[in-house]
Amino acid sequence: MAHEWFQEKVRQVLPKERYNHTLGVMQTAVALAKRHGVDQEKAELAALLHDYAKPLPKEELVAVLKKHEPAENFSEYGGVLLHAPAGAYMVEEAFGIEDTEIFSAIYWHTTGRPQMSLFEKVIFLADYMEPGRSFPGLEEVRKLAEVDVDEALLVTYTNTIQHLLAGKRMVHPMTVAAYNDAIGEKN
Ligand code: DGI
Ligand code: FE
Ligand code: FE
Ligand code: FE
């Protein structure tokens, strides 16, 4: 593990379960990166940092985001979405990590987006399928992610949107765009 210093910082800010989730995402991201020929070191670092902003209160996340863009882009669709874009900016500022792939992977890790890079897909799927997660349909995604990243992504978007609709929650436009992009490849 080449990111011990970052890992200690992350361990200090995240509650125990969130930190354990992060370790699961790191392990899964490295495995997926290896399987699909993506930079393993970098995937591990992005995974380590992906939920860095998660414990912060909504007002703080809004304040961080507002320095860079209208917070309404995300806040209007539910507070849970803010930690991803805010986290991307925070990681850049706090650690001086200026890597567009890491930035984008963190920024879009909750909603996804159309035409993600393979690196972003690996982080997105690792977050969804790490060993600590368990929900209906997840085993299918885990199997698919080994052989067909785009098919795994489509099933993930479908599951997420169905879950949001069932809970009468709003769907972020980028989540819809990501789903349309993923299904469009098949139509
Ligand atoms: O931070 P994590 O819990 O590890 O995972 P995450 O960042 O992927 O967040 C998952 C949550 O985000 C889950 O409750 C579903 C929700 N979510 C995903 N897409 C959307 C969404 N919520 C809304 N309102 N709209 C979305 O498009
Ligand atoms: Fe997250
Ligand atoms: Fe996710
Ligand atoms: Fe996560």
Automatic annotation (TrEMBL):
<keyword id="KW-0547">Nucleotide-binding</keyword>
<dbReference type="GO" id="GO:0046872">
    <property type="term" value="F:metal ion binding"/>
</dbReference>
<dbReference type="Pfam" id="PF01966">
    <property type="entry name" value="HD"/>
</dbReference>
<feature type="domain" description="HD">
    <location>
        <begin position="18"/>
        <end position="132"/>
    </location>
</feature>
<keyword id="KW-0378">Hydrolase</keyword>
<keyword id="KW-0479">Metal-binding</keyword>
<dbReference type="GO" id="GO:0000166">
    <property type="term" value="F:nucleotide binding"/>
</dbReference>
<dbReference type="InterPro" id="IPR051094">
    <property type="entry name" value="Diverse_Catalytic_Enzymes"/>
</dbReference>
<dbReference type="GO" id="GO:0008803">
    <property type="term" value="F:bis(5'-nucleosyl)-tetraphosphatase (symmetrical) activity"/>
</dbReference>
<dbReference type="InterPro" id="IPR003607">
    <property type="entry name" value="HD/PDEase_dom"/>
</dbReference>
<dbReference type="InterPro" id="IPR006674">
    <property type="entry name" value="HD_domain"/>
</dbReference>
<dbReference type="InterPro" id="IPR005249">
    <property type="entry name" value="YqeK"/>
</dbReference>
<keyword id="KW-0408">Iron</keyword>
<protein>
    <recommendedName>
        <fullName>bis(5'-nucleosyl)-tetraphosphatase (symmetrical)</fullName>
        <ecNumber>3.6.1.41</ecNumber>
    </recommendedName>
</protein>
